[in-house]
Every structure is written in structure tokens, then in C-alpha cells.
Amino acid sequence: MNNILYKLSNVSATTGIIRKFSVSAAKNANFSCKLLVVGGGSGGCTMAAKFARKLKKDSVIILEPSSDHYYQPLFTLVGAGVTSVAATRRDARSVLPSAAKWIQDSAESIDPEQNVVKTASGDTINYEYLVVAVGVVNDYGKVPGLTEALKDKNSGVSTIYSPDYCEKTWADFKNFKGGEAVFTYPDTPIKCPGAPQKIAYMADSYFTKSNVRSKSNITYNTCLPVIFGVKKYADALMKVVERKKIKVNYKTVLKEIKADRKEAVFFNTDDKSQELTLPYNLLHVTPPMRTPEFLQRSKQLVDASGFLTVDKFTLQHTKYPNIYGIGDCTNTPNSKTAAAIAKQSYVVEQNLRQTMRARGARRAYDGYGACPLVTSYGTCVLAEFLYDGVPHETLPFDQARESVIAYYMKRDLFPFIYWNFMLKGYYNGPEFVRKIINPFAK
Ligand SMILES: Cc1cc2nc3c(=O)[nH]c(=O)nc-3n(C[C@H](O)[C@H](O)[C@H](O)COP(=O)(O)OP(=O)(O)OC[C@H]3O[C@@H](n4cnc5c(N)ncnc54)[C@H](O)[C@@H]3O)c2cc1C
């Protein structure tokens, strides 16, 4: 019956009457489960797969509104014209574990005292244990002019941070005939903090190929005081920046886009009254990001910035022991990447199983994250590191060096691992490979 209701809900986007019927009928639905996973993206799908295999059928419910699942790390290469957005997408139904029940709806509120989640359609889901994996969303509205500029096909403004606009980046690359190419990095936590500069490096390579580089300037504007948070890789990337003659403005944040004049206005993080206006022919924006609104409203669960408060080692909620968090929506100080989620998934799996047995969490997440920084069509710096920016490399060579192997790992190997192992709950990061091929590394 509920399946029928949800099908009607889908149809409802075009017909108000059916929607009203389906929503009011669905209001009565009341589900219960042992484990509820809210969000079925990289982290949620991985966790649901791990537990659906272990627990009885339908003990796991996944609450996920989208019928599309994207492998987001490839959006950078979509923007650079290496692949298409279609190649990064699969039906959510084909990746979510069949042994779990998928409710295609959004969480509207979490009541951690009563162990109840309410959905946007008015259903209630009672859980014993909860994994929150709702990621972050782009906050386009924070930059006046951005939403309109992204929607305008001819604006020259795009972002690789959305399946809706990453192909526009490629179109803008091809249309660029020289002039000012401007890139940005906002002052909020973002996923894949390397991607804003990766796309600038790819722009340089493409403009060189298309013979427009000599008549163009590339400017990279970042809120950070350094090019990258881990010194070893920052040193290597500074050489890339210098070789490519990319101008870097530090502590510089996009404030507004004046699309009619093709100008981007920035502020300085030390003194917000200090403005910089850059004219652009191509503007690539990394939008500000935040957690979904319903999570921000769940005040008992989040910090002042709206991120789920979990212990940075155990990934267990700091106040509610039956709640765990994984991925971009938590307040752990690691780099928000799919690579981090692979490692976190093992820790959450082990610790949540302990919690289910009424024992204390015992595994610790070490902050592992990885960032394959493509520097051209064919080279990549493969940054891997732990909490506090401590390098932790898998391959038996200096990964700060630009390498061809790392480029093909990013393009071909990592997507293969993601679809075939990680989302099925069988990949916990490269530690086992590291022990074999790089056993003497610190
Ligand atoms: C351009 C780009 C480049 C990247 N490059 C890399 C890279 O090279 N390497 C790397 O490891 N990582 C990279 N990443 C980061 C990586 O893709 C993310 O860190 C990862 O996918 C986050 O997983 P998640 O589960 O936390 O969130 P997501 O995968 O975003 O999933 C969150 C899910 O929650 C759902 N949701 C939202 N609100 C609700 C709600 N109210 N109720 C229920 N569900 C909800 C959403 O529909 C979504 O499916 C990149 C990302 C981008 C965009």
C-alpha cells in the first residue's frame, strides 16, 4: 500500500489533486525499524548495505528523497570535458540495498528523545538506532546574483558542485576565447576542498590546448590563507600554481555577482569592508554549503553551524548514544570526501554493533581523507592524510609528485571501487592495500 502511495506522490509533482490525496493518506503511515538511515548518498547507502546484510529483512529503513545517485567526485572531470554527467549517475533503486526498505521521502524533523523521525509527507518512523547521513547542500542564495547567473546559459558562470551545472563548466571552457577566468572557494565548510583548485588547473590545461591561454589570466580566490591545508601537498601545489601562472588571492571570498556587468565582488576575511571587484569572462563558483534545513532546526543534535555533533573518533552522537553520523553532515574536522566516508563506515559499523549489544564504542576514526588533485589531463597529486594534516600515503612513492598513475586511479579505479564495493558495504578504505604495497610507511 505504501508503495502505491509513494508512486502517487511521485506523480503528484504534476497534478495537485493526486498530491493532496497521497500526502493526506500517507500522513497516517507509521513505520518502525531497528535501524533508520537518513540520507541514501555515499555514506547512507554504504551504512544501509552493511547493516541490511546482517540484520533481518526490513530491519533497516533508508529515508532518501532522490531517485538519482551520483558519483560526485567525477563532477570535476565532467567540468573538464573528460566524461559526461550521465556517466556519473545511477538510479538510486539500483544502488540502495534490496534487503532494506527504501522510503522515498525527506526527513522533516528528528525527535531524539522519542526516537522518531517525521517525514515531509507526514509519516512517522520509529527507530531504535539512527544513522544521520544527509550530506551538505549548496547555499546559492548566500551570494546575490549566483542563482540567476547559473540558470542563464550564456552568463559564463558555472559550478562543478552540482549535476545541474557541471556540464555548463565544460561549455564555458569551450566558449572561452581569452580574457579573465576567475575561480572561487567560499568561507563555509565544503565537500572536497581540493576541487575548487582542481578545476582551475584543468582550465589552464584546456586553455593551453585551445590556444587561448596566452591571452588569458586565471585568478583563484580562496578564503584560506594557504593553497591547501596539508603542508606537504601545499608545497607541491604551489609549484603547480607558479608553473601555470595562476594568480592566487588568499582570504578572499565571493560576495556578489553583478552578471549584467560581468563582475565578481569579493571581500577580505580580515576586514570585510575591504572589497575587490574582478571582471570575468568565465567565472567558476564553489558555492557556500550548509547542512539541510531540517537538521539545522534539530538543535539538540547540532553545533552552532548546524553540523551533527559526533565524537570525532567514535562518530557516535555526543548526547544520544543510539545515534551515529557519517559523511559531510557531521562536525568532525576531517576533509569532507567520499574517501573519508569509506574509512568512517567501518568505524560506524563496528561501534554501532557494539552499541546494539549494549557495549561501549571501541573503534576510532583517525581522520583519514584523500584528495586526488588533478593538475592536468593526465597528471594528479594524490593527497592522503589524517587528522591534523598528517600525510598517510598508500602508494610506494612520494604522492606529492604529479603522477599519471594517480590520474587514472581518480578517473577509472575510484569510480569502479565506489559502485562495486563501497556502496555495497565491502570497502573500508585503502588500509589493507597500504599494508601490502607500502608496509614500511610510517
Ligand atoms: C565537485 C566534487 C568533487 C569531489 N571530489 C571528490 C574526490 O575527488 N574524492 C572524494 O573522496 N570525494 C570527493 N567529493 C566529495 C564526495 O562526493 C562527498 O564527500 C560525499 O559524496 C558525501 O557523502 P554523504 O553521504 O555525506 O552526502 P551525499 O552523498 O551528498 O548524500 C546525502 C544524501 O542525503 C539526502 N538528503 C538530504 N536531505 C535529506 C532529508 N531531509 N531527508 C533524507 N535525506 C536527505 C540527499 O538526497 C543525499 O542523497 C567531491 C564532491 C564534489 C561535489
From TrEMBL:
<keyword id="KW-0809">Transit peptide</keyword>
<dbReference type="InterPro" id="IPR015904">
    <property type="entry name" value="Sulphide_quinone_reductase"/>
</dbReference>
<dbReference type="GO" id="GO:0070221">
    <property type="term" value="P:sulfide oxidation, using sulfide:quinone oxidoreductase"/>
</dbReference>
<comment type="similarity">
    <text>Belongs to the SQRD family.</text>
</comment>
<keyword id="KW-0274">FAD</keyword>
<protein>
    <recommendedName>
        <fullName>Sulfide:quinone oxidoreductase, mitochondrial</fullName>
        <ecNumber>1.8.5.8</ecNumber>
    </recommendedName>
</protein>
<dbReference type="Pfam" id="PF07992">
    <property type="entry name" value="Pyr_redox_2"/>
</dbReference>
<dbReference type="GO" id="GO:0106436">
    <property type="term" value="F:glutathione-dependent sulfide quinone oxidoreductase activity"/>
</dbReference>
<keyword id="KW-0496">Mitochondrion</keyword>
<dbReference type="GO" id="GO:0048038">
    <property type="term" value="F:quinone binding"/>
</dbReference>
<dbReference type="InterPro" id="IPR023753">
    <property type="entry name" value="FAD/NAD-binding_dom"/>
</dbReference>
<keyword id="KW-0874">Quinone</keyword>
<keyword id="KW-0285">Flavoprotein</keyword>
<dbReference type="GO" id="GO:0005739">
    <property type="term" value="C:mitochondrion"/>
</dbReference>
<feature type="domain" description="FAD/NAD(P)-binding">
    <location>
        <begin position="34"/>
        <end position="160"/>
    </location>
</feature>
<comment type="function">
    <text>Catalyzes the oxidation of hydrogen sulfide with the help of a quinone, such as ubiquinone-10, giving rise to thiosulfate and ultimately to sulfane (molecular sulfur) atoms. Requires an additional electron acceptor; can use sulfite, sulfide or cyanide (in vitro). It is believed the in vivo electron acceptor is glutathione.</text>
</comment>
<feature type="domain" description="FAD/NAD(P)-binding">
    <location>
        <begin position="231"/>
        <end position="339"/>
    </location>
</feature>
<dbReference type="InterPro" id="IPR036188">
    <property type="entry name" value="FAD/NAD-bd_sf"/>
</dbReference>
<keyword id="KW-0560">Oxidoreductase</keyword>
<dbReference type="GO" id="GO:0070224">
    <property type="term" value="F:sulfide:quinone oxidoreductase activity"/>
</dbReference>
<dbReference type="GO" id="GO:0071949">
    <property type="term" value="F:FAD binding"/>
</dbReference>
